From TrEMBL:
Organism, scientific name: Glarea lozoyensis (strain ATCC 74030 / MF5533)
Record-given protein name: galacturonan 1,4-alpha-galacturonidase
EC number(s) on file: 3.2.1.67
Presence of keyword Cell wall biogenesis/degradation: yes
Domain of life, per lineage: Eukaryota
PANTHER family named in the record: EXOPOLYGALACTURONASE B-RELATED, PTHR31736
A cellular-component GO term for this protein: extracellular region
Catalytic activity: [(1->4)-alpha-D-galacturonosyl](n) + H2O = alpha-D-galacturonate + [(1->4)-alpha-D-galacturonosyl](n-1)
Protein's GO biological process: carbohydrate metabolic process; cell wall organization
Pfam families reported in the protein's UniProt record: Glyco_hydro_28
Function per UniProt: Specific in hydrolyzing the terminal glycosidic bond of polygalacturonic acid and oligogalacturonates.
Signal sequence annotation: 1-23
UniProt-annotated location(s): Secreted
Length: 336
């Protein structure tokens, strides 16, 4: 999918790989599955005296409790906690706009499960023009905390089966227009129960985000593991396991003609990159009809590659554009 054999560097790609370590010789002997990972990063429940709200669980995989969830969050708003207990499933069958939140907690110990009604989801969503993304949930507000030992199940299988052989983008944590988001101790897995492979499953993406932290994460998916998109700044990633991914990718930036994109101040430390296409990667568009901008001040430190095809990738000719045409149409940073 990617052409990385011809590398041209923008003058504006001022990024340091000075502390990057590649270790292809050593044998990987870290955690091999989520429960081994959990031993390194145990979950410790925390107790507080906030007001607790409960809603009814679903009786079966079609019993949509979206309306109850919405009501529960409204009741828990301004100082309370909506609790979804262990052993219970909460089925979501409608798109929800949850952008009214202020000082609220969701304690997820059970499972949130999206329905498999891909017909409904294909005509009911929130659209964003960036990479034509659609989503089913919009969370927004201030001081929102989601924590617990539970599961958020997007029902990927319905999509892998429904779109077998076709390209779709399934992204787990896409963030728009946000300040100071932290993900701590999160496990992301794309699992298919049959021969229809999961597709384009990114771990974290971000867009117009200032202040993004991801720490203590286990990611077992098929596309980018952690990938800030345009206009992301002040990024901290530490203790990240990625298996079977396309690596930690800055960008891509510059996809849209005339639009400025930037990514700056990223610190990425202690990464185990297993069975990946790429390790540390920067990707920017060039050539005719692209945008402009920069990736600046990015540090990769203690980055361990095991069975990685391209441990370091500086791709200034993303996507499927050859070096000849990018150099011809990009005489200097102003045009890049
Ligand atoms: C990595 O992913 C492959 C393919 O899904 C799997 O067979 C292997 O067990 C995984 N390894 C680890 C360490 O998670
Ligand atoms: C968290 O969930 C895992 C998997 O369901 C379970 O093995 C573990 O005991 C749970 N930990 C706590 C503290 O509840
Ligand atoms: C995740 O999806 C990729 C393909 O998109 C596949 O190669 C990989 O085996 C999947 N991982 C799991 C745990 O199913
Ligand atoms: C990034 O921010 C700049 C302003 O600094 C804005 O002009 C541009 O449209 C933004 N890019 C995207 C992709 O939103
Ligand atoms: C570069 O980024 C780091 C955080 O990763 C920050 O501490 C430092 O101040 C930045 N340097 C400059 C010159 O902005
Ligand atoms: C690069 O791409 C341009 C435009 O598609 C094409 O005309 C040219 O032949 C290509 N050059 C090489 C070396 O492949």
């Amino acid at each position: 999918m990617l052409l990385t054999n011809t590398l041209t560097l923008f003058a504006t790609l001022l990024t340091t790989f000075s502390t990057l370590t590649t270790s292809t010789q050593h044998h990987y002997n870290g955690p091999k599955n989520p429960s081994e990972f959990r031993k390194h990063c145990p979950y410790t429940p925390h107790h507080n005296s906030r007001r607790k709200i409960y809603i009814r669980p679903s009786r079966n995989a079609k019993d949509d409790i979206s309306v109850d969830l919405l009501r529960g969050l409204k009741q828990a708003n301004h100082g309370g906690t909506l609790v979804l207990p262990k052993g219970q499933t909460f089925v979501i069958g409608k798109k929800l706009d949850l952008t009214f939140l202020n000082n609220v907690e969701l304690n997820l110990e059970g499972e949130i499960l999206f329905t498999d009604d891909i017909k409904y989801w294909q005509s009911n969503y929130y659209y964003h023009p960036f990479q034509k993304s659609i989503s089913y949930w919009k969370w927004g507000g201030k001081d929102i905390r989601i924590w617990g030992n539970g599961t958020l199940n997007g029902n990927g299988q319905a999509w892998y089966d429904g779109f077998a052989g076709l390209e779709i983008l399934v992204s787990k944590y896409f963030r728009h227009n946000t300040k100071n988001v932290v993900y701590d101790n999160v496990i992301i897995e794309n699992v298919s129960s049959n021969k229809n492979l999961p597709k384009n499953t990114d771990g974290w993406d971000s867009y117009n985000v200032d202040g993004l932290t991801v720490r203590n994460a286990w990611v077992n998916i098929g596309d980018d593991c952690f990938s800030p998109k345009p206009n992301t700044s002040n990024i901290l990633v530490e203790n990240l396991y990625c298996n079977g991914t396309h690596g930690v990718s800055m960008g891509s930036i510059g996809q849209y003609a005339g639009v400025k994109d930037y990514i700056y101040n990223a610190w990425i430390e202690n990464v185990i990159m297993l069975n990946a296409q790429n390790g540390a990667r920067l990707k920017g568009w060039a050539g005719p009809n692209v945008g402009y901008g920069y990736i600046q001040n990015v540090t990769f430190k203690n980055f361990y590659n095991y069975n990685v095809d391209w441990p370091i990738v500086l791709d200034a000719c993303y996507f499927n554009v050859n070096a000849t045409s990018t150099s011809r149409t990009s005489p200097g940073p102003a045009a890049a």
